[in-house]
Amino acid sequence: MNALSLQPFRISIPEAQLDQLRARLANTRWPDQLPGPDWERGVPVEYLKDLAKYWETGFDWRAQEARINQYPQYTTEIDGQTIHFLHVASPEPAATPLILLHGWPGSVVEFLNVIGPLTNPREHGLDPSLAFHVVIPSLVGFAYSAPLSGPGWNSAKIAQVFARLMAGLGYTRYGVQGGDFGAFVGPDIARVADGCVTGVHVNAATFGFIPMGEVPEEERETMSAVELERLARLANYMTELNGYFQIQATRPQTLSFALSDSPAGQLAWIVEKFKEWTAASHTLPEDAVSRDDILTNVSLYWFTGTAGSSANLYYESMHQHEWPTRLETPTGVAVFGEDVAIRRYAEGGYNIVHWSDFSEGGHFAALETPDLLVADIRAFFAKLQ
Predict the structure, then answer these.
(1) What mean pLDDT do residues 49-73 have?
(2) Rounded distance, CA 12 to CA 72, Å?
(3) 182-199 as b/e: b if 16+ CB within 10 A
């Protein structure tokens, strides 16, 4: 295909928007605390008040903006949709192109701690014979890959434009890595990219990597302790932690009014996931991921006004009627401490050539346990060389 028309891009939030954010936070109308243990019914009021006050008075957005802007960014238009992405070349001449895919409630911010080790391993004390040129797009509907150009932006359609993005950048053979929704989009890229993808590495994988429906008792009897633990975690998720999913998959527009009007509301909606999806050994979200990283991610949702369009991906995914075909592309899976993927179920739909079980970390691996994620990505793609 012809080369894409690329526009260099830098994030530059007007000072007036920063002032408005601080004013809204200062004038938040706070609810009463419900009875019961902290976090049992949602984010504790006093905790969120403290975090919101830090966002208002202590958090340095300009420093975080500069941190993102140190990497080359671009926008382009594919199929009428604006696509925003980071593109960081490796100094190593034999580097492998790699597209990194975030999920919800993530963003390109998730990958800031792994760009260096992946692109410049020599500088990080790693073997320079395995290095990557990284492309990190904002999923359609997220951050600066917005507004939505129309309906239908499910995983498969996003995969099509990302395959065109990689081709337009001149990459004819490349790897894919993704977590959460990135673990949907990544395999879909391999399905549509006509042999261009050398391998797919995923973390925080769910559908396609877990049982669909109740697991019979006779099957449970064949399971290891680790598999049974993941089944129990999955059951708890479905009964206690799945409310956000149902709302975003059915009424993302209604939700968007509250989250687009209240930064405290947007903060609560996202920070709850940093509590529930990181290692259970942590008391608070910032024990797993720093406050500044959490707030940088939340700020990107707030400043771009994409609470609704990002949630819409759940709606599109739950209203599509096609189940993905089996993927023969070599696939690697990293299962962190709070993840639920089980190999016996994944092998039905994927050509699993690499599987790692970790006792540490959780859903936000690139932020919570970046060294482990980088090492696993490198181990997987080393097998494919």
Answers:
(1) 98
(2) 14
(3) bbbbbbbbbbbbeebbbb
> What residue has token string 């994409």?
306
Which of the four pLDDT bands, split at 50, 70 and 90, describes residue 1?
Answer: very low
Q: What is the pTM of this model?
A: 0.97
Backbone angles phi, psi at 86, to 5 degrees: -95, 145
Question: pLDDT digit string (tens) for 300-331?
Answer: 999 999 999 999 999 999 998 788 899 999 99
pLDDT digits (tens, 9 = 90+) for 163-204: 999 999 999 999 999 999 999 999 999 999 989 999 999 999
Catalytically active residues are 180, 314, 363
Q: Is 266 exposed, middle or buried (0-12, 13-18, 19+ CB in 10 A)?
A: buried
